[in-house]
Amino acid sequence: MTYDLLIALLLFAFVSSITPGPNNLMLMASGANFGFRRSVPHMLGIGLGFTFMVVMVGVGLVQVFDAWPPSYSLLKYASVIYLLYLAWKIANAAPAKRGAEAGRPMTFLQAAAFQWVNPKAWAMALTAISAYAPGQTLMAVLVVAAIFGAVNLPSVSTWTVLGQQMARLLTNPRRLTVFNWTMAGLLVLSLYPVLWPG
């Protein structure tokens, strides 16, 4: 990989990881509702789960989808249904201080598995492999995945910190409810490019 391509990949990884999307919106809500420490498994699940996804896409998983085109539609509809379910959970989340039964953050495995139905994660992985892994050699795929792993986790963690800081303003149950419904609404809005691609 050339130096110019590496710099371009770092920039792409940063911009695509730090901008709003389902992962970041859910982490912001998790930080506000459960705090940073309890959201660490969620953050690690995203960072490591997405890195693994990039590797799997790079070593040929995308060829399976190319061989069976209806799988794209199946993935799209599964993604939409699951994101709507997560939006509902965020909208109805209760603050951690109300007890464990009031809600809990996403686990490591749930967050890692979520990458496979996250439309933004698919777009990022497919773009990263096609644009920055020339020839899709194993070494190029591993470099792309490693760079995303190094850039993604700190990027998504900032959203958890932002949510945690916002929690200071959300001590009133009504404000927290408004915040959670707003985050849920933004998560639903993030489906717009999936349902109505330009």
What do you see in this structure?
With 198 residues, the protein is mainly alpha-helical. It contains nine helices and no strands. The model has no long low-confidence stretch (mean pLDDT 85).
Q: Structural class of the helix and strand makeup?
A: mainly alpha
- Estimate the mean pLDDT confidence: 85
Number of helices: 9
The largest pleated sheet is described as:
none
Rg, please?
17 Å
What is the general shape?
Answer: globular
Features:
198 residues, mainly alpha
Secondary structure layout plus pairing:
Layout: H1 3-18, H2 22-34, H3 36-67, H4 70-91, H5 108-114, H6 119-132, H7 138-166, H8 173-189, H9 192-195
Helix pairs in contact: 1-7, 2-3, 2-7, 2-8, 3-5, 3-6, 3-7, 4-8
Could you give a quick summary of the protein structure above?
By secondary structure, this protein is mostly helical. It has helices spanning 3-18, 22-34, 36-67, 70-91, 108-114, 119-132, 138-166, 173-189, 192-195.
